[in-house]
Amino acid sequence: MTAHLTRKLYDERLRTLSEGSVNVNFNAFVDIKWDDPEFAVDPDDPRWVLTSADALGAHPWYREQSLEARIRIGIWRWAVIAKVGMQFENLLMRGALDYIYQLGNRNEEFRYLTHEITEETHHTQMFQELVNRTGVDTAGGKRWFRQLSRILPLAGSLYPEAFFTGILAGEEPIDHLQKGALRSGEPVHPLPQRIMQIHIAEEARHISFAHEFLRLRVPRFGKVRRGALSLLFPLIMRTLCDVIMIPDRKSAAQVGIPAWVVKDVFWKSEAGQRMLHDLFSDVRMLAEDIGLMNKVSRLLWKALRIDGRPARFRGEPVLHTD
């Protein structure tokens, strides 16, 4: 476990993140050329075909489909991810507002988190606008998640370490998927490409904050409280990963994806299993650093199939030699 993060250093890092939000920020309806013909959602545009960075895009069943089918499924996949992303960002904003409501004066977290909430507002706008432009009428996350998300923001003040763990559980998979698509070298439609560029740039700060928040607090917890979080941590990671990454089977069936394919992709296939392990290399590093890895929690990480080598540094690209 690394040395404790001091409050002074924590505050300095938050000031740096806040200045970053001032100096580099985006507006959903200024920085995306929604009405540019190049950004139009054309059902005949092959750039909507999913890249191999997406476990569905890498699956043999998908690759065997006609170009028309792969485009249709690609548009649907982007729309579903965007809708779930919008819902998750909405939950984040409400929980962050709940958390900062009780902060004292001169707390650096207030300024940083209000910057983050502002940025997330623009993210929800661009995600929803993408959904609207595709014409895909998706409900987004599974019903149980949509219902539970009405009360989950209360954890922002009632159980903040679990809440910000949940934030990481949602942000890390989306960030991984987006970076993978951009790094794949395969064609990506310019509309989701631009959205991903903006989201990755600003989300880096949001992920940094959640890491620093947990680094400050968790090492100071007593044995019981830290032990409880060590078990909750992988459970929250896997649960919210599934919410974000796995599409509803009924919705998938409407675009012609058989239930067995959804089951195989998430997470039985070789590519799916690999992605599941890769998604959380950064948070495995964090869990090691802040004392959340122990004999019992390691078994849980393994049982949930999200164990593996921790990243050596944040954002380390995952390389496979096979």
UniProtKB/TrEMBL annotation:
InterPro entries in UniProt: AurF/CmlI, Ferritin-like_SF, RNR-like
Residue spans crossing the bilayer: none
UniProt GO MF annotations: oxidoreductase activity
Protein name as it appears in the record: Diiron oxygenase
